[in-house]
Write a structure and sequence with these properties.
mainly alpha; 29 helices
Amino acid sequence: MEIVIESNELFHQVLSWLDVKSLVQAAAVSLRWYLIANNNALWQEHANRGIRGQETQKLLELFKSKSFVRLLYRYQRYICNFSLDSARWQRFCSKEKWLARIHLTIQIDTINSTQKAELAELYSAFADLMEEEFHDDLSAIIYLELAISNSLDPVRLMHNVALLYDKHDDLDQAEQWFAQSYQLNPQYQSNLCNYAVFLDERRHDYDRALFMYEAAISNDPRDLNSLSAFTDFLTFKRPALDRVHSLFRQAMDQIASTTYLSEDGQELKIIIQYAEFLVYICHHHGARDIFHLIVQRHRNLKVFPSSASQLFFCIGFLSYAISMLFAHDDLLAARQLVVEAMAMPVYHGNSHPMLEKYKLVAACSIYRISTPLSLDASEELQQVIAPVNGLLYYFNEDIAAAIKLWSSCIHHLDHRENAFACYCLGVVFHLRDKRGLAKDVLTKAFAIDVHRLEFQNLSFIARQHLDKPIAKIFLDILLEFSLAHLVEC
């Protein structure tokens, strides 16, 4: 033994067979042992013994050998024996994403290549992990396509690939995968719904979108996701308000028959959407009755709601508050509803862009706060709040910041939501004596603003800030153009 210890080469060979814990203990004995125990070649030998195949080799290449061995050691001590479609696996991925990753790589490398169904499940789980925990959508696409090549029923996987390509603005690839999924199984509801939304919002192919929405509703009349998307389509893209009423009543009957909330909070989303639709078409008392269902459900909660339901409860209270001021001029009731929303933990603990938008609108209309949010906000948040936030910068006389935000909204002038920014830019152009350009931009805004919804929202917020001379001038010009447009029509 003394000969082994005195020989660096022999001692290196002994250490190479120790586990990580023993190797770390050996490194603490003396400086000489420390230098040998931390030799890169030694750790590379350990790492090479952990290679099971192509996937673990890829993982080793991401790490230095020492980090890979330590990860492998942690994994070997962790019992990972739960189903890949279980809630426990999802929690494990969120908490220990690297252990989940090495688990899947080892499983993929060691499974028999003839076990197609098991391989498809592993590749699909790997793709989900890469998308949700590592935010690597391109790798997720690669593994989903591997899953498809091994799956006996790849319809869901094809749909998921389509969603990822859509997310990365590769619309041709997205449509190709949506179409393949539809051809393979025309009854797969998620694909019917999302394919319809894709044709509607991404392709602006309203004829094909209408066909696909009808197919989705016919295939599953109880699917709230499809009902939500289709009612929006029939409200703003192919207006058919009687049909919208009918679909919403169908959804409300379904919601009334259930006493629980789904994990994704779709019941609350539909209630909010229906109430806001009634506000759009000036059925204000009906809207108040529907909004009140949100309040009743929140006050009658017997179990703690999911995070999605908490989000929609908070949005519902804020939307109700805004409508109480907008439709009923009841400032006291509006502020009471905001106070109740602020008492919800999600109000302060969630930065979802849509919630931030409702909070911003409630603050600048109900409390008449004119302080804009920082321009340093995330890109995703800026895209949602830019029209309103730009207006607040304008009221604070930071015209350059306002124009920057509004300009970022109008890349796609066919989108109804961009009418708000178009109106604002039209007023600014008018004030800068660019009358022709102002008229063109405002004409476009009126053309895309179905039901004049964005005009109502803009003038409503502006009226809350008439104590500022700049807001009064802005509103006067906006109303002048509105009257001129009505005369021309």
